[in-house]
Amino acid sequence: MDDNTIGYWSNRFFYSRKQFTAAFSFADPFSNGCNNHNPFDNQGKNFCWRFNLKTLTLLHSIRIAIEMVLFWLFLNKVMPQLMTFEGRNFDLTSGITAPLIYYFGFVKGKIGAKAMLAWNFICLAILLFTVSNAILSAPTPLQQFAFEQPTTAVFYFPFVWLPGIVVPLVIFSHLISIRLLIKEIKQRDIAQTSLLMKQVA
Which end of the chain is more exposed for a tag (fewer CB within 10 A), N or C? Predict the structure, then answer.
């Protein structure tokens, strides 16, 4: 590797590191609130139960706007096509179905907790697949594809907020939703079991 190449990567990552620092500083109040609560102790559980499942579900609608931004970045040649809905990014499906899950799950009551739990798992898997593609298409030693047009936009402001804030927030909302839904399913199962025992007795 020649000196010019070393200088290129040094400047790129030095600049991006400052961008990431700014992004995480912006998210510091949120991250501190989460880090101060261990999800496995009683205080952490109480922190999780404070979240509203309806709000967490609607939050995923933001993924529609994010996909539009990613497509715009692709048109401006700072994002590979595989990171858009024309490529390997299926995250638009999560954003589109979020209002439907909210409407039929909470307004109409036609979708149960188990179906919403499955939806959260599927959307979380889609997001993790998209993130893995982003990592493997970024201009780093880990890059495996998209060499013609790597994922470079996330190294610059304000798009650094995508991996710095938006992705962690969406993952966090899925994990909390999953926990809330599992709790709800367990409570219903216990209630049904108790009712059945009373009927048998």
Answer: C
Q: How far apart are CA 91 and CA 127, in angstroms?
A: 6
pLDDT band at 12 (very low <50, low <70, confident <90, very high): very low
CB 54 within 8 A of CB 182: no
Q: Where are the domains of the chain?
A: 3-200
Tell me the per-residue pLDDT of 128-187, one tens digit each, with 9 for 90 and over.
999 999 999 888 888 888 788 888 888 888 888 898 899 999 999 999 999 999 988 888
Quick one: pLDDT at residue 147?
81
d(CA 143, CA 135): 7
State the pTM of this model. Answer: 0.75
Nearest-CA neighbor of 97 among 121, 64, 66? 64
Nearest to 174 by CA among 62, 27, 53: 53
